[in-house]
Design a protein that fits this description.
Structural class: alpha+beta
Order of helices and strands: HHEEHEEEEE
CATH architecture: Roll
Low-confidence stretches: none
CATH topology: Nuclear Transport Factor 2, Chain: A
Strand content: 25-35%
Largest sheet: 7 strands, mixed
CATH class: Alpha Beta
Mean pLDDT: 94
Shape: globular
Length: 119
């Protein structure tokens, strides 16, 4: 379980939890917010597949002391059955961040597709 003990019981909570956990260096906690076979569109020209590979990217970010904003504007979430399309306006002015999430059997939400930068 993540060091902070927080659970994403709504899809809108995932982006903030990832930012908080990266800022705290909790890479294992970030990995808990992705499904096993999730896809991260990073780097933009060579998407990363699988939670272990995604975890390696976040580990490299944590080692480089990368920090994410925790106050990005959440745009309205679109839901369909157990899926959700969530997005935020990037605090750094680069555009938007968009994620597709799926509700898990325990009621939490995890990312299945993550596009961290949309211009």
């Amino acid at each position: 379980m993540a060091a902070d003990g927080k659970r994403a019981t709504e899809p809108e909570q995932v982006t903030r939890l990832i930012a908080e956990r990266l800022n705290a260096g909790d890479v294992d906690g970030i990995a808990e917010l992705y499904e096993t076979d999730a896809v991260l569109a990073y780097p933009p020209d060579d998407p990363t597949s699988g939670v272990e590979s995604i975890k390696a990217i976040y580990r490299a970010m944590a080692e480089q002391n990368v920090r994410f904003a925790t106050d990005e504007e959440q745009l309205p979430t679109v839901r369909f059955e157990d899926l959700a399309l969530a997005s935020t306006t990037a605090a750094d002015g680069t555009g938007m961040r968009v994620q597709v999430l799926r509700k898990q059997s325990d009621g939490t939400w995890k990312r299945i597709i993550d596009r961290p930068e949309v211009r």
